[in-house]
Design goal:
2 domains; about 25% helix; 14 strands; alpha/beta; six-stranded mixed beta sheet; eight-stranded mixed beta sheet; Metallo-beta-lactamase, Chain A
Length: about 300
């Protein structure tokens, strides 16, 4: 008897350990939890260690606990960064593509594709993308430069002008069509216009169609605060100061000018992009005709995202 714990001969100890092994018909090893008590730890383990029956690694660590601290100090920073990288997925992004005039095409991280105001071939002369498919097509009014939904391929859900008013669900996309006008005379000159607002990947988007008047407080309440605004800047029915007020009233953080004059605008009477951007400094130029955006990338103050050139 040593230290109050019994000491067994080696043969007795071997027999004892063998008797404690579960039979093959009992619980599998993968689910078996080792059970030890105080006298086994206090008496058997030191003797096993001396006779070489305890793992050398474990024996070394028991004698030199500072090795554990050194290992953690050496490797824990890299482990931390690996876990951080794997534990936080990249934020979802929306692909925003401009095909010319007021035609905007969006692809959300879910894969849903939204085409807004695809142009016909009787007015503007931009190249229409071949075999372009979409899940949802939104049309603000029936003018030829904005209403060619039939040119989109696939089997999209199509919402045309005043038929799109109110809250709608299209292939899982919830959007609101808001009644506005293409002039300042309640549509008496150019007719009705439907503006669209919807949320994608944590951001609120608004496409104003062919809006021709400032927004009233009632209309602003229907839109709510907007993150990304597709703003038609070409029509002379709205002054530059009125366009600025619309963007400010909607609290837009990204303003994308659309529907301005280029060499491909045909006979449409529109102001140029340069005219709208005159004396402005909050401009981010987009090379090409598309960019991606996520909610964390939204600028803290309003920024104009202007496309350089034409599609």
């Amino acid at each position: 008897m040593q230290g109050g714990a019994p000491v067994f001969p080696r043969s007795c100890m071997t027999t004892y350990c063998e008797e404690r092994k579960p039979s093959p018909t009992k619980q599998p090893d993968a689910f078996r939890q080792p059970q030890e008590n105080a006298w086994e730890i206090g008496s058997l383990r030191p003797r096993l260690e001396k006779k070489g029956n305890l793992s050398p690694c474990r024996a070394t660590l028991r004698r030199r606990p500072w090795l554990i601290a050194a290992f953690l100090l050496l490797f824990s920073p890299s482990l931390f960064f690996v876990l951080a990288e794997n534990g936080h997925a990249a934020p979802p992004t929306v692909l925003i593509r401009w095909y010319g005039h007021a035609f905007i095409y969006l692809i959300a991280s879910s894969g849903i594709r939204i085409a807004i105001d695809p142009f016909g071939d009787e007015t503007v002369h931009y190249r229409f993308p071949a075999s372009l498919q979409a899940d949802v097509v939104l049309i603000s009014n029936e003018a030829n430069d904005r209403s060619a939904g039939e040119r989109i391929q696939g089997t999209p859900q199509l919402f045309r002008s005043v038929a799109a008013l109110g809250t709608n669900n299209a292939r899982g996309l919830l959007f609101r069509g808001i009644l506005t006008f293409r002039d300042k005379s309640q549509g008496a000159i150019h007719g009705h216009n439907t503006a669209f607002v919807f949320d994608l990947d944590g951001m609120r988007f608004a496409h104003l169609g062919d809006l021709g008047h400032p927004l009233s407080p009632e209309l602003l309440a229907e839109f709510g605060k907007v993150d990304v605004l597709f703003l038609p800047v070409g029509r002379d029915t709205l002054l530059a100061s009125e366009l600025d007020k619309i963007a400010a009233d909607l609290a837009a953080r990204v303003i994308v000018p659309i529907a301005y004059r280029t060499d491909l605008s045909g006979d449409l009477e529109l102001r140029t992009l340069a005219s709208y951007l005159d004396n402005r400094t909050n401009i981010r130029w987009i090379d090409g005709s598309e960019f991606s955006l996520s909610a964390p990338e939204l600028p803290p103050s309003p920024m104009i995202y202007a496309f350089r050139g034409t599609p």
